[in-house]
Amino acid sequence: MLTYSFEHAGGKPMYEYLYECIRRDILTGRLRAGEKLPSKRMLARNLGISTITVEGAYGQLTAEGYCQAKARKGFFVSDVIGQEGKIPPAEQKTARQPEPEELHREHREWLADFAANSVQPRQFPFTSWTRLLRKVVDGEAEALMERSPGFGALALRQAVADHLWRFRGLSVQPEQIVIGAGTEYLYSLLVQFFGRNKRFCVENPGYDRIRKIYGINGADCVLAGMDEQGVKPEDLTALRAQILHISPSHHFPTGIIMPISRRYELLGWAAAAPDRYIIEDDYDSEFRLAGRPIPTMMGIDVSSRVIYMNTFSKSLTPTIRISYMVLPARLVKPFRQKLGFYSCTVSNFEQYTLARFIQQGCFEKHINRMRTYYRRKREQLLSLLREAERAGQLDIIEHGSGLHFLLRLHIPGSDRAFQQRLAERRVWLKPLADYYEGEPEHCRHVFVLNYSGVSDQTMKPAVRQILACLAE
């Protein structure tokens, strides 16, 4: 088993240091051509690091030709000794089943893509947005040409603070709000702020991009298991987690809504040590379609340990790329001292337009309209599926919140085989297992349905294809 010490990694990301160690062993002959490298999980366990870190190192080695990835077999050392100045031999192509993402890319025109997060073009408020953009250009010309503060334009931060008070009951100051071009950018800032020596923890299952972003930024990232109430506190203690990233109001992909008892339990965990914090990802709180919005964890936090994060990607469009986070008051000054030199990554044109969009009530009207639109779309989809549920072909698993729910399909064979058969009918579904690290048996034959980007016209024929595939 490969064994390396990370004591001399310095400021390098852990995946980069691991890549250099393995590369050195290949070039010196310690690892011979054709030798199989340890599995990602096994090497991560041996070194006490995350599988994301190992995945990053193996990915870089494969990209540069130092090793080859063979489907369902693992990673093997390439023959590169004595090949200085030459391109490593290309990996031989072998007949195999396409990987899910390859299969997805093969189909340019889907009848329905139930994995995509998108907004139908006619649902974007182009008229209001264009009108406000013109007013911004006419009336804010001087401000548009000024450099935006690192935390974002004050007008937008004030508008966001007012919105959070009205909609989420959060009393925060504009100084606590940081604007950024997408939550991925904000995640990266938090890694830089807390430091790569801190242990970040994410939910398993969860949104795999979060794990990848923490990993590629060199963070020590571990995964905590979940039960029917959310992330398990005992896992946080066992994993020695310090920064916990969760989506308590509507977990992706399971749809779990964390009860208040578990929320207080996690807040107690965070308050028990000075270096513990919780990142509350409230990514689609606007679209709770039954009852009142779920209160935020930041709103009940008395120890200033919660960092609140949200985005306009779900409520407006993923292409607008404007997200924000709210720092607890105790972190504002140290965050500004450490990262205040950064420029805001969102253009002034978009910041001032969005500020007016919120201030003039256009955002609230848009959310109300979209909530009605998605409620109708959700009921349409559920009514189409309930006949199959009554016939015993599937079970619907939903919590009345957010823009996705789960289906347990009563099918023989593997989830991957069903996914491929359905893809041939131009309908794309992702199994719940794809969002897990590992292969949990309890989620076999469970699929995630994100319906936000599926048009009304294709909803019925898409469900017809799912049912036809079930009947085969």
TrEMBL record:
Pfam families: Aminotran_1_2, GntR. CDD domains: AAT_like, WHTH_GntR. The keyword DNA-binding applies. Keywords: Aminotransferase, DNA-binding, Pyridoxal phosphate, Transcription, Transcription regulation, Transferase. One of its GO terms (molecular function) is pyridoxal phosphate binding. Residues 12-80 form the HTH gntR-type domain. In the C-terminal section; belongs to the class-I pyridoxal-phosphate-dependent aminotransferase family. PANTHER family: HTH-TYPE TRANSCRIPTIONAL REGULATORY PROTEIN GABR (PTHR46577:SF1). This is PLP-dependent aminotransferase family protein. It comes from Selenomonas montiformis. The lineage of its organism: Bacteria, Bacillati, Bacillota, Negativicutes, Selenomonadales.
